[in-house]
Amino acid sequence: MSTAMPPSHQALTVPEVMSALRLSRFKVYDLIRSKQLQSITIGRARRVPADALHAYIQSKLGDND
Predict the structure, then answer these.
(1) Contact yes or no for 41/23 (Cβ under 8 A)
(2) What is the Cα 58 distance to its own chain's centre?
(3) pTM for this one?
(4) Lower CB density within 10 Å: C or N end of the chain?
(5) Nearest residue to 56 (alpha-carbon basis) of 13, 34, 43, 42
């Protein structure tokens, strides 16, 4: 699985988010459940908008200031 996010992806799968953040499936779903990471559901598929992932990362970088 590639760790680099292709620039054409606008909605990421949970495994793609896991790879990008190097977190477990449980932790990614925990972030979604706690509303720290926004996601959408399409049918039974869960997707994380790329902008939401970037916003989450930026919010964490801001916490360290």
Answers:
(1) no
(2) 12
(3) 0.80
(4) C
(5) 34
